[in-house]
Amino acid sequence: MTTMVNDPVRNGVDTAVLFATLDAVKGAPEAAKFQFRASNEWISGTHNRSTIDGYFGVGEERNHERTFTFDADHPAVLVGRDNGPTPVEYVLHALAACLTAGVANIAAARGIHLTEVRSVVSGDIDLNGILGLDPQVRNGYQNIAVQFTIKGDAPEEKLREIVEQSRARSAVFDVITNQVPVTIDVNTA
Amino acid sequence: MTTMVNDPVRNGVDTAVLFATLDAVKGAPEAAKFQFRASNEWISGTHNRSTIDGYFGVGEERNHERTFTFDADHPAVLVGRDNGPTPVEYVLHALAACLTAGVANIAAARGIHLTEVRSVVSGDIDLNGILGLDPQVRNGYQNIAVQFTIKGDAPEEKLREIVEQSRARSAVFDVITNQVPVTIDVNTA
What is the end-to-end Cα distance of chain B in Å, rounded? Predict the structure, then answer.
């Protein structure tokens, strides 16, 4: 993983810093324990807003360089006012973003210059589930399909291997395709 | 589910439309088959951008009232430039948004006026997984915790039941706590 390369910044990835980070975590595995957070506030109906700012990592509390806020809502056809994407659309964005970040890092580490990475992520969902109308239908996506277009200075086989390695190391792919335990606490005071 | 209520708009939810939608889907279950999508474009390094606009539902192709775009990146400590939240933070936002939309709808259907709904969603992740440094560590969140604050004109027990019913009918909760099959196709042409 720490092979020396001639070009330290490739695909916008500073590979020297990437390899140094890997070496640092190898020496201090605790540094890799992160906690991410989102704070959400209900606005009206299905419209609500999340704020993303603080997180814990590399041994201390940190903040993003700026605070990010995102609105979610349902479209009118789902009894909302379309003030933002639906929550399930944000999941598709998260998957695309995670796989794409991985592709850029892995290509850089392998010395491959990318010229284009695009993806379309689509998820099929039968709302008879969440509407409570059919107990045989699950609430979430029944399946998700990702279509990648990737171009760069490597043979097709190598480009495909990069996508596959990104899948194998994707946090969001793991969250979606495996199970994460979720606890919910409620305060009414 | 179609109990008549005196106040047709409660918590910003038009309950008449909500119940009419439920009745419409009962009569035509195919209307509930939706496909959501996100299109992502790599920018540089771990920075990429998703566009959310078109979707299929209620029998036809539709568009949101406006096109939504969202940037994702890694912070500097994870070898990015912090142009947006990390992909895994978007997952926490999606979960909070889905549960909160459900809370508002369910409370409205039950005739309860809400005055406040807030939540903080936190996820613990050990990046030794995605960094490939420890094969025993999973790539995604090890656990996710949701802390809700909910207030309204109902006893604590009723407010807790609303959150529980939202959990039981949440699409994103299902995606995270159960498995969704994901296929990835790659085009290099």
Answer: 52
Instruction: Tell me how crowded residue A183 is: count the other CB atoms within 10 A of its CB.
Output: 9
Cα dist from A65 to A9, B49, B147, whole Å:
22, 18, 25
Token couple for A123: 């998820």
Q: What span, in angstroms and rounded, lies between the C-alpha atoms of A79 and A87?
A: 14
Secondary structure of chain A: what % helix, strand, coil (to 5)?
35, 35, 30
- What's the pTM? 0.96
Rounded to 5 degrees, what are φ and ψ at A59? 85, 0
Q: Looking at chain A, which residue has its C-alpha nearest residue B129?
A: A169
Contact A175 B176 (CB under 8 A): yes
Nearest to A106 by CA among B19, B131, B38: B131
Query: What pLDDT digit, counting tens, does each position of A72-125 carry?
Result: 999 999 999 999 999 999 999 999 999 999 999 999 999 999 999 999 999 999
Contacts of A112 (CB under 8 A, 6+ apart): A10, A11, A152, A153, A154, A158, A159, A162
Q: Which of A10, A15, A36, A131 to mutate to test the interface with B (most CBs of B within 10 A)?
A: A36
> Which of B64, B75, B131 is facing A64, going by the closest CB pair?
B75
Which whole number is the average pLDDT over A46-57?
Answer: 98
Q: How many CB pairs under 8 A join A and B?
A: 465
* Higher pLDDT among residues A25 and B141, named by residue: B141
Contact residues on chain A for B114, CB-CB shorter than 8 A:
42
Encoded tokens for A174: 């793991």
Kindly list the residues from chain A whose CB atom is less than 8 angstroms away from the CB atom of residue B48.
Answer: 96-97, 100-101, 104, 117
- Respond yes or no on whether ipTM tops 0.90: yes
| Interchain proximity A96–B40, CB inside 8 Å | yes
Task: Give the residue ranges of DSSP H helices in chain B.
Answer: 15-27, 87-109, 156-168, 171-177
The predicted pLDDT at position A3 comes to 46
Give the distance from residue A6's alpha carbon to the nearest chain B alpha carbon, in angstroms.
17
Question: Least CA distance to A124: which residue of chain B?
Answer: B35
